[in-house]
Amino acid sequence: MRVTVLGARGQLGHDLVAELRGCDVTPLTHADLDVCDADGVRAALRSIRPHVVINTAAFHRVDECETDPARAFAVNTFAVRDLARACADRECVLVHVSTDYVFGGEKPTPYTEEDAPKPLNVYGVSKLSGEYFVAALCPMHFIVRTSGLYGLAGASGKGGNFVETMLRLARAGTPIRVVDDQVLTPTYTADLAQAIASLIRTEAFGLYHINNSGQCSWHRFAATTFELAGLKPELSAITTQAFGATARRPLFSVLAHKKFARLTSNWMRPWQEALKAYLRAKGSLARA
């Protein structure tokens, strides 16, 4: 099976390339291919002739999306539209990675694939619009919504990830404030990559939520990171309102992944176990 991974420099793209090493994988970074170049994308697909295209490329700086909506829609919506058309024309499978931020956070229980989206910010609207184009234009598609990603390669567009940022601040002795009223499920990209690899082999096309199990606030995620790493920084909990980010965030965006789990018998390990595995892989896990 020939697989092309777009956004291969990012943390999920990096882990997908590693997970799919038994396939004929072509990793493409932004330097190799600008997803906003529709002609370039079509030319690449003609040359590579992939059976599966996995799109992890996105403009995911949530606050910057508010101030630069044109770029957000160019990357997250219109480039995805053109990619979906190109994949449909070549009759290849498109796996498109989306986000929990398509939801508004008003639901008290985990969101399922059947729940109506209600994005609160430009990023969420642009990603949801991209989803709609994939569903409408490419018959053989998987749309994978996930949340709170962190991985060994870091986030290429963000200069690291949440876990690494927390560790860096703690080691520098910096007082740390983290919101305690936004609840989600942090997801280790190595686990997500393994899940996507199993999903594409099912050919059960459609929309799926995939993340690690359980839920926590960003503050609890940070506190657990410090506990596992053996660090004791000055950590305080604040509200979303007090933090004052530019973009609105859903206060609850936990995704239920039962549909995926029932299909593949992979119920995804708890986020605490995944975080421990990540810290061990990074050499940051405290000795018992």
TrEMBL record:
**What are the record keywords, sorted?**
NADP, Oxidoreductase
InterPro entries, sorted: dTDP_dehydrorham_reduct, NAD(P)-bd_dom_sf, RmlD-like-bd
Name the GO cellular-component terms.
cytosol
Q: Which Pfam families match?
A: RmlD_sub_bind
Q: Name one GO biological process term.
A: dTDP-rhamnose biosynthetic process
Single GO molecular function: dTDP-4-dehydrorhamnose reductase activity
EC number(s) for this protein? Answer: 1.1.1.133
The RmlD-like substrate binding domain sits at 1-280
- Record-linked CDD domains: dTDP_HR_like_SDR_e
The pathway that the record names for this protein is: Carbohydrate biosynthesis; dTDP-L-rhamnose biosynthesis
Q: Which residues form a coiled coil?
A: none
Q: What class of enzyme is it?
A: oxidoreductase
Read off the PANTHER family from this record.
DTDP-4-DEHYDRORHAMNOSE REDUCTASE, METHIONINE ADENOSYLTRANSFERASE 2 SUBUNIT BETA
**Protein family per UniProt:** Belongs to the dTDP-4-dehydrorhamnose reductase family.
The job of this chain, per UniProt, is described as: Catalyzes the reduction of dTDP-6-deoxy-L-lyxo-4-hexulose to yield dTDP-L-rhamnose.
Q: What is this protein called?
A: dTDP-4-dehydrorhamnose reductase
Q: Which organism is it from?
A: Candidatus Segetimicrobium genomatis
User: What does the organism's lineage look like at the top?
Assistant: Bacteria, Bacillati, Candidatus Sysuimicrobiota, Candidatus Sysuimicrobiia, Candidatus Sysuimicrobiales
